[in-house]
Specification:
6 copies of one chain form a homohexamer.
Chain A lengths: L2 H10 L18 H7 L1 H20 L2 H13 L7 H14 L3 H13 L4 H15 L4 H15 L1
Helix pairs in contact in A: 2-3, 5-6, 5-7, 6-8, 7-8
């Protein structure tokens, strides 16, 4: 390790304690646009909206707090919203949650993430999580085909 | 959704079927440099190397194939090696594998990823995976402190 | 810690080696009542009954033993059946098993557990298990709405 | 189902939409008392405190929010803090997180939960989560022995 | 331990470093035969084939490599394909992946594995993975009933 | 599918409803022999014995029942104890439980299973469970090296 590289590396590493600003990302596509383009996305979005009505009606304080925290996690910040939605996709595929995979894949699409980046994210989940990820990957590819095809 | 935005989006989405080149990323730091800087990293790297000796000696065809596939997954490609190591970190934290977390956090450090990006990746894992991620996050922060502190 | 509190605590802690009696809890509602009240519960109960027919026909010794052990776990004992059904709900939601969530939520309802206690149990599962619990929580709330609404 | 029972059941179920007050529970024992009584608890509590120092120093907004939400989840409310700590124990044992098991078992002890209730909670986790819970149960019993023995 | 037994044991253990030949197993039944016999198998096989079309069209290098590695894992080798398909069944049931359970149960059936061996494999998964395996076991028994009934 | 093959297949499949006898397998090696041969095995066996003392002392009815059911699952039956111990190994590696992996690998060794069959079982777990299995595989290979080396 040369001193020069070391120095460059140190510069890369200095900003970690400052709390970066969080802000809403710009979506290229509305949920309605996505629902019109993909039947799978439409069904997911509608079911989710219908079920969330019950959750909202219950008005449970801690659920609302969790939803809020969840929302804040994926805002543009030190890492872009795009990257974090793809990370949400990786985590969801590793934990094999179809609804979560659909949610993050649609969010990433709405932010303008190209298909190949969704595939490479799923590749990380596949190798980390193994062949049990495959059925979820198959269903994810069906959604990607409808969104990007 | 205006036609213009739609068009821009479509442009974003066209390159998905081309198979992107994969290449080895450039590491800013060697494993030895990392081991000298962090006692936690040193112990992880040495234990892993010692145990891998047995695995290599066994010369199991399918294990070697898996290791090779694993290596290929994190190369620079449509997504950068940096981003994919952080995704590996997210997947590992969601599945609560300390060794895997250490591995990907060290790889990301070696590639020059700043600390705040490691923290934001862990935030995604924390919200996706819940409070059972916390003990792993605590140990990850100890490593980050030694690497970046 | 005052001696008094210590003493009180010790008193609280003395009965642990005695094996508490286990007995069947009293259900306020029959499965039929629940099925008539909630379409979601009805479908779950009917599918489960239909599939259990095959399992019983197979007459597998170890499966029967497991079913028996499972049944014994949730009887009234040192902890009430109500509390243990809610604990089964928490474990099921943490491990994200919709059928298991429905089973324990229905059992808890039949024992007279109020809705808010089901919600608070799900809150524990949500914070322990993270956002991947959310799709299951949404479906659980739909069931709760039909049962208690 | 008689109208009378139905009515009783309905009464049981009416308070679900009111948001119950949350308040700090009363601990019978301090962490220091527990650490003095049990060597396993002491090591857990000290390691956790040491590692949390790094986490606090990093001052990450979302981590702090998550810690806060986590804290709020286990307060006395519709369900007692005792019951929810035991539910946290069940979820932690189902997800096989030793640190989380130790945390909730110690919290439950500090609140005056008798040993048999901890064991019955672990029984639920054992039957829900299977034999892979056994190594964690063994370590939990070692802690229980030191705390209650 | 007598020297004789010890010696026999040592003989049993000598061949581990030679890389055993892998070869395609002989299937007694085609997928079409299985699909004609069982409606559940037919739906699984058809859906899987339809979704795999998208995956193949995407032509993702790492997905193809993973599929290839997966295929190689279950060939006749030191352990028979039959035994390894049943092991795939155990792993899939422990990780609670219905599609994976159906896949391996059908593969085992096609190789001539008797029903009781499928049941005993599921028993291992049930005791290892706990009661959350039960809903998957119920669905697996429905498939077994159609295949072997 | 020719009628002949069909018939052969049917013959293969007829014995499923008879409840096969279960009996204790013959171990080639005692736990003491294994502990003398491998330091890793010795530490595992001694720790497990020490911790089980607490569990036995507590005399919890449901824990004893679970232990008994667990014991019965791995007896010689339609599938041999050898095969089922290897299946226990696969399930344990898929669920990433080091203690469980050690337990089943030692049991399989004591029954005379050759090393290559342990490796092939771990290969199934690796491909099913993904790269997060690797740290456990490394530790398992260290044990295998001490047992068979």
């Amino acid at each position: 390790m040369s001193p020069t590289t070391d120095h460059a590396g140190t510069e890369n590493h200095t900003s970690e304690r400052t709390s970066p600003e969080r802000k809403e990302p710009t979506y290229l596509f509305t949920e309605k646009y996505v629902a019109d383009k993909s039947e799978l996305a439409r069904r997911f979005i509608e079911t989710r909206a219908r079920l969330n009505t019950n959750v909202e009606k219950a008005n449970n304080f801690l659920v609302k707090r969790f939803y809020n925290l969840d929302h804040n996690t994926y805002l543009d910040s030190a890492l872009s919203a795009k990257t974090k939605e793809l990370m949400g996709l990786v985590g969801s595929a590793c934990l094999r949650c179809d609804d979560c995979i659909f949610y993050h894949a649609i969010q990433a699409y709405r932010l303008g993430v190209p298909r190949i980046e969704q595939e490479e994210s799923l590749n990380v989940a596949l190798v980390v999580g193994g062949s049990i990820v495959i059925p979820h990957l198959r269903r994810a590819y069906e959604l990607l085909e409808e969104l990007y095809g």
